[in-house]
Amino acid sequence: HQVNPEVWSVIHPEREGGSILLMTLGLIVVAGVLAATAARIMGVEMLAGREVVAGARAFYVAESGLEVGRYHLAHAVCDPDAIPQTVQGDVSTGESYVLTLAHLGQSRFLVTSQGSAAESVRTVREEVNCINSSPYDAAIIGCQGLRFNGNVEIDSYNATTGAMNLGNGNIKTLNANALLELIGNVEVYGDASTTGPTSPVDLNGIVRVYGDIHATDAITFGGLSGVDGGVALSYQASTTTVDDCDPLDVAGLVNTNRPAGSPASFSLSGNNDVVWATPSVHHYSEFKLQGNSSLTLHGPGEHVVFVDSGGLFKTHGNAQLNLVGGATLTVYLTGDLSLRGNAIVNTGAPANLRIYASGNGAFDVGGNFGFSGVLYAPFGTVDLVGNHQYRGSVRGWTIVNSGNGDFDYDESLKDLGSGSRGQIIPIRWEEVYVGA
Predict the structure, then answer these.
(1) Which DSSP category does 413 fall into?
(2) What pLDDT sits at residue 427?
(3) What are the pLDDT digits (tens) for 372-421?
(4) How far is residue 249's CA from residue 364's CA, in Å, rounded to a whole number?
(5) Which parts of 52-159 are beta strand (E)?
(6) 88 CB-side CA count, 13 A
(7) Which residues make Cβ contacts (< 8 Å) with residue 89, sequence separation at least 6?
(8) What Å distances lie between residue 320 and 11, 158, 278, 369, CA to CA?
């Protein structure tokens, strides 16, 4: 017999209700499966996200280890026996590096750093050249800029051996965006280079560089300028820091050598002659040598002049500062410097006279003077004017020459050693993966 569906549903309503219940339960099960799947996916994604973050942090920790390795090489002055083979360090809680340094022969080193963060580990390594760099390794160093205009010849000699015209009168800038500019009638018997990023070299006039030109930006030739050696772009030693401009830490050097007590004043003028027969330490608020006066320092031994309180060190007129009998003079200067007139300051080897200036003021060297010494003023503005004969080495924040003169770099200054540090030149970098 056929049954009317409407009658069946009236007679057996529980059958339809059971179907609805089964469908509802099915939907609940599906929703539960979907929710569990979504939760599992979210968990996996969160875990993957944490792993990505931890991996990135481990990479930067490893890079921090490389920087520590470069520091050890530089401050060990590239001596393989003075550097540690393994260094461990913590960057923050749960983040650390293990650093190894290996000498590959000659000046080459391999620096490997493994960084750890959470459960992630990343390893990077870098092969570098480490070169012993003296703070007196060039004739003229203008950290933030160097400009020569006038009739100038720059060469080198050796005060120890007496050899002349050696062709290593190198000039350079160090910082980023530090222009090296030669204008007028300038002859450089050596190299002209910039090592900080985006630092150009500009030659205009009757300019000749008999060595090489290295620059990290454009090299421009104007007028009758030229170069006898090679020309190289992107010659960047490494990322420059304050230590590159001031490897001696001049503020610390000056503070360490500051005498006790209150400073006096020194002023000598007219036709007066004064002799310092015994090496000693002199503490002044200013130092002035003027007129036709002369100051003679007898050796053997080191005389020290400390000009405190931002005072001026000044030689003007026809004054003379003489070092005899093996005497040397070290000047610690907190103020400005002015060497003018027909003054003669030290007729001996440049190493016998060293001026360390911690200020950022003016350092004026001009007139018809003769100077033999080292001027180390990494934060000062150095102006070379007049007709000068300069032997030694000069370092300043900026250096500008607007006169006529000769500059002879003393190559024996590189052997002084004090303040030397390693210059790090990268060769190659790579990340080391598991199984590599």
Answers:
(1) G
(2) 81
(3) 999 999 999 999 888 888 999 999 999 999 888 899 999 999 877 555 56
(4) 22
(5) 86-92, 95-105, 108-117, 120-133, 140-157
(6) 2
(7) 64, 65, 68, 96, 97, 99
(8) 132, 24, 18, 10
State the pTM of this model: 0.72
Structure tokens at 188: 């450089």
Phi, psi of 69 (to 5 degrees): -65, -45
Q: From residue 8, give the alpha-carbon distance in Å to each of 16, 17, 21, 22, 23.
A: 10, 13, 19, 20, 21
Using DSSP, state whether 322 is helix, strand or coil: strand
> Could you give the 3-state DSSP secondary structure of residue 135?
coil
DSSP 156-221: EE-TTT-----S---EEE-STT--EEEEEEEEESS-EEE-STT--EEEEEEEEESS-EEESS-EEE
Beta bridge partners of 185: 151, 206
Q: Are strands 353-357 and 370-384 parallel, antiparallel or unpaired?
A: parallel
Name the residue with tokens 């006096």: 264
Task: Count the Cβ atoms, other than its own, within 10 Å of residue 198.
Answer: 14
Number of neighbours of residue 303 by Cβ within 10 angstroms? 21
Distances (CA, A) of 195 to 174, 390, 398, 421: 5, 25, 15, 16
Contact predicate 392/376, CB 8 Å: no
The DSSP string of 239-305 is ---HHHH-TT-HHHHHHHTPPSS--EEEEE-TT-EEEE-S--EEEEEEEEE-TT-EEEEE-SEEEEE
Q: Residue 354 belongs to what H/E stretch?
A: strand 353-357
Find out whether 314 and 333 touch, Cβ atoms under 8 Å.
no
> Measuring CA to CA, how many Å separate 186 from each of 171, 219, 282, 286?
12, 16, 40, 35
